[in-house]
Write a sequence for this structure.
C-alpha cells in the first residue's frame, strides 16, 4: 500500500514538473521578448506549430518525433488529461486509457476542436523519455559504423539462454527488444525469476538491432539441453549464455555443460559465454594436510574466511582433480566462531563425482570460515568457488567457470567500458585446468540498460551504476558475431569467432593473456583482406576423453549478477520454423599452446589438432628460433593416420636462448598449414597464420 501511494505521488510530482521546472541557472523567459502562441488554454504550447492544418516541414516533423507526438503526416498522438473522455471529433481514436489520462491519435486539424470539448483539462505530449538505453559498449566495440553500413544482424537468429527475463514485455513495448520469440523450458514454469536475461538480450540488440532474438528460460542442465536442441532446430547461429556453472567438470572443457557447447558447435552454432565473476570468489590449491586432516589454505591457516551480512545466502562449491569419479573423499564445511553451520560430507568411494556443495543463509553478520577436510584418499588439487563474498584467500588464476573453460566456447571476461578499459576485479581469469588460454577476450560492462539503469561512468569499485559483470560483456560479443554473420553469410562459426578474436585490441600484458584474453572487443569496419587468419577451435569429438560416469554430479548455477524476485506470470510464444545450419566441413588444423606463464623455460607440451583432412601423408612440424624438439632437432614428421585427430610433442628452450627471442612452429598437412609465433619467456600466441591449400 505504501508503495502504491508512493508511486502515485511520484507520478503527480512528474506531472507537475513541466509547468514549473526551470533549469538551474536559467533566466526566466521574458514575455515581452517572446510572444506566447495564442492557443486554447488546454493545449500544451509545444504543440503550437504542429496543429495548423498545412503540411509539416521536415523540421516540424523532427520536432513532433522528438516530442513523441508524431503519428504520421496528418495526425498527432497526444495525452488528454480528463476525468472522463467526451465524445471525440471524427477521425480521433483512443489508443489507451488509464484513470485520468487518455492516449489519443487525432488529425492535426481537429486538435483545437478536441481542446474545446467539456472536461478536457489538458492536451500534451507524453512525458519526456528516451526510447533506447544504449550500451556504451556498442560504441567502444566499433559497432556503430557497421550498423550505419546496414550490418545490423538482420536475418541472424540469436538465442539468449538465461534463468529469467522479467520485464521483457516492457522492453518489447519500448522498442528495446524487437523480433522476439520466448520459450520457457523451466520445469517450474517461471519465466520471471530474474530480469538478468532481459538485460543480456538488450545488449545483444543494442549491438545488432536487426537480429531475431530468442529468449529461452532454463534452470537446470536438463532444461539447458532442451533449450539448445530447440535453438538448433530453429536455425539459431549464436547462443549467448551469461550463466556460470559449477561442479560440472574439472575445468578442462569436459563435463555435461561443455558437452552441450560442443554439440552446438558441431551444429555450426557459436556459443558465447561469460567467463564468470569469480576471480575473488575462487580458491585453488594442492591439499596440504594440517591437524585433523584439515586443509591448510596457507601454512597454519585452516580457514578461508568470508564476511557475510545478516541474511546473506552463500553457497560453496568444492571439487578436486579426480574426475569423473573419485575414491578420494574430501568434505566441505562452513564454520562460524568455531562451530560448523553448514556441511557437505558426501561419500566418495570410487563411483561418485569429486564434488561437495553447501549453501547457508547467515543468521548474523560476521566472519564465516570455509574448511576442507580430507576424509580419505590421496592429496588432490582442490578448487573452491562461492557465490557471495570475497575469499580471504582467493586465487584469481584459474577462476574461469564452466562452460567458459571449453575450447569451443567463446569466453568473455569483463572490462569497464571506458578507457583505460580496466579489467574488473571480479572477472574470472584463465588458464583452464589443463593450461589453455582463457578467456578468449573481454567485452564491456558497467553499461547502461533499461533493465539495470544508466551508467554513471564510474567503474564498479568506484560506486559505478549500470550493468556490471561478465554477463554484460558476453552479449556485446554475441551481438558482434551477429553483425559478422549477416555480412559474411558463408562464414562458418569458427571464422566468425576467429575474426572477433584476431581483431580484439590488446590490453594488459603484451599479447594474449589469461586476464584479458586477446584484448577488448572491436570490429574494424574495413573488410578483411583475405580469409581470416588462425584456425578454429577443435570441433572433433576424438579430442574429448570418453567419460563413463556412474554417478551424476549435481550441477549448481548462479547468474552472474544477483537475481531479483519474479514479479509476473510467464508468457510463452513458441515459433515453429526451422532452418538448421550445416556443420562446417572445411579442413582445419590447429596448434594448441600450453600457456607458458610466467616464463617459457621448457620442456613444454604442444598439441596439434586437425579435422576434415585428407588422411594420407604426414603431419610435419618444423621450428625456427632457439627452440627444439626432443633430441635437439628442428623437425618432426608423423603419419597423419586419420581425417581428424591430435598429436602432442615437447618443445625445449635451447640453453643459449635469450628471453624474448622469437621462434615459430610451422605444421603442415596435405590440406592445411598452421604457423605459430612465440617468444622465449613469454606466453605463446595462438596461431596467427592459417591457410587451407
Ligand atoms: Ca584464514
Ligand atoms: Ca566427501
Ligand atoms: Ca594482453
Amino acid at each position: 500500500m505504501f508503495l502504491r501511494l508512493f508511486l502515485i505521488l511520484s507520478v503527480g510530482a512528474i506531472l507537475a514538473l513541466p509547468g514549473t521546472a526551470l533549469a538551474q541557472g536559467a533566466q526566466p523567459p521574458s514575455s515581452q521578448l517572446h510572444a506566447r502562441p495564442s492557443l486554447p488554454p488546454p493545449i500544451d504550447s509545444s504543440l503550437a506549430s504542429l496543429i495548423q492544418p498545412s503540411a509539416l516541414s521536415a523540421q516540424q516533423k523532427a520536432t513532433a518525433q522528438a516530442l513523441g507526438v508524431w503519428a504520421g503526416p496528418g495526425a498527432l498522438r497526444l495525452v488528454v488529461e480528463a476525468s472522463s473522455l467526451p465524445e471525440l471529433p471524427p477521425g480521433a481514436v483512443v489508443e489507451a486509457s488509464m484513470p485520468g489520462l487518455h492516449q489519443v491519435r487525432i488529425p492535426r486539424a481537429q486538435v483545437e476542436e478536441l481542446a474545446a470539448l467539456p472536461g478536457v483539462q489538458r492536451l500534451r505530449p507524453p512525458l519526456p523519455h528516451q526510447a533506447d538505453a544504449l550500451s556504451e559498449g556498442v560504441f567502444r566495440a566499433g559497432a556503430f559504423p557497421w550498423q550505419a553500413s546496414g550490418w545490423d544482424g538482420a536475418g541472424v537468429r540469436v538465442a539468449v539462454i538465461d534463468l529469467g527475463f522479467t520485464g521483457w514485455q516492457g522492453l518489447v513495448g519500448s522498442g528495446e527488444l524487437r523480433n522476439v520469440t520466448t520459450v520457457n523450458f523451466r520445469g517450474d514454469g517461471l519465466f520471471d525469476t530474474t530480469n538478468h536475461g532481459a538485460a543480456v538480450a538488450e545488449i545483444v540488440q543494442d549491438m545488432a538491432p536487426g537480429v531475431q532474438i530468442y529468449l529461452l528460460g532454463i534452470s537446470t542442465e536438463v532444461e539447458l539441453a532442451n533449450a539448445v536442441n530447440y535453438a538448433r532446430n530453429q536455425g539459431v547461429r549464436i547462443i549467448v549464455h551469461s550463466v556460470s556453472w559449477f561442479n560440472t567438470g574439472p575445468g578442462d572443457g569436459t563435463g555435461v555443460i561443455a558437452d552441450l557447447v560442443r554439440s552446438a558447435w558441431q551444429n555450426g552454432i557459436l556459443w558465447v559465454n561469460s567467463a564468470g565473476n569469480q576471480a575473488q570468489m575462487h580458491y585453488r590449491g594442492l591439499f596440504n594436510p594440517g591437524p585433523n586432516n584439515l586443509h591448510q589454505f596457507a601454512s597454519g591457516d585452516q580457514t578461508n574466511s568470508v564476511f557475510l551480512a545478516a541474511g546473506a545466502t552463500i553457497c560453496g562449491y568444492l571439487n578436486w582433480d579426480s574426475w569423473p569419479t573419485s575414491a578420494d573423499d574430501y568434505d566441505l564445511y562452513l564454520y562460524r566462531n568455531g562451530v560448523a553451520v553448514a556441511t557437505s560430507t558426501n561419500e566418495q568411494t570410487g563411483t561418485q563425482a569429486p564434488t561437495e556443495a553447501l549453501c547457508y543463509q547467515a543468521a548474523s553478520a560476521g566472519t564465516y570460515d570455509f574448511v576442507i577436510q580430507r576424509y580419505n584418499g590421496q592429496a588432490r588439487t582442490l578448487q573452491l568457488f562461492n557465490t557471495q563474498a570475497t575469499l580471504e584467500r582467493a586465487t584469481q588464476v584459474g577462476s574461469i567457470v564452466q562452460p567458459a573453460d571449453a575450447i569451443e566456447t567463446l569466453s568473455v571476461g569483463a572490462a569497464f567500458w571506458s578507457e583505460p578499459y580496466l579489467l574488473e576485479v571480479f572477472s574470472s581469469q584463465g588458464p583452464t585446468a589443463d593450461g589453455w588460454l582463457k578467456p578468449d577476450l573481454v567485452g564491456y560492462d558497467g553499461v547502461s540498460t533499461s533493465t539495470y539503469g544508466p551508467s554513471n561512468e564510474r567503474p564498479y569499485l568506484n560506486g559505478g551504476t549500470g550493468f556490471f559483470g561478465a554477463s554484460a560483456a558476453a552479449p556485446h560479443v554475441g551481438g558482434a558475431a551477429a553483425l559478422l554473420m549477416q555480412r559474411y553469410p558463408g562464414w562458418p562459426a569458427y571464422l566468425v569467432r576467429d575474426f572477433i578474436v584476431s581483431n580484439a585490441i590488446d590490453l594488459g600484458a603484451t599479447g594474449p593473456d589469461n586476464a584479458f584474453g586477446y584484448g577488448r572487443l572491436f570490429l574494424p569496419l574495413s573488410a578483411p583482406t583475405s580469409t581470416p587468419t588462425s584456425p578454429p577451435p577443435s570441433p572433433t569429438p576424438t579430442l574429448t576423453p570418453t567419460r563413463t560416469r556412474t554417478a551424476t554430479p549435481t550441477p549448481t548455477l548462479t547468474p552472474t549478477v544477483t537475481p531479483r524476485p519474479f514479479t509476473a506470470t510467464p508468457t510463452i510464444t513458441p515459433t515453429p520454423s526451422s532452418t538448421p545450419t550445416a556443420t562446417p566441413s572445411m579442413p582445419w588444423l590447429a596448434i594448441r599452446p600450453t600457456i607458458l606463464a610466467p616464463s617459457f623455460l621448457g620442456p613444454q607440451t604442444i598439441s596439434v589438432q586437425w579435422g576434415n583432412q585428407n588422411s594420407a601423408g604426414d603431419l610435419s612440424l618444423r621450428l625456427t628460433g632457439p627452440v627444439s624438439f626432443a633430441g635437439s632437432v628442428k623437425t618432426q614428421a608423423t603419419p597423419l593416420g586419420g581425417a581428424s585427430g591430435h598429436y602432442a610433442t615437447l618443445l625445449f628452450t635451447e640453453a643459449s636462448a635469450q628471453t624474448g627471442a622469437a621462434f615459430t612452429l610451422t605444421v603442415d598437412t596435405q590440406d592445411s598449414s598452421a604457423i605459430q609465433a612465440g617468444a622465449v619467456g613469454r606466453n605463446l600466441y595462438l596461431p596467427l597464420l592459417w591457410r587451407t591449400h
Summary: Residues 305 and 369 are 4 Å apart (CA to CA).
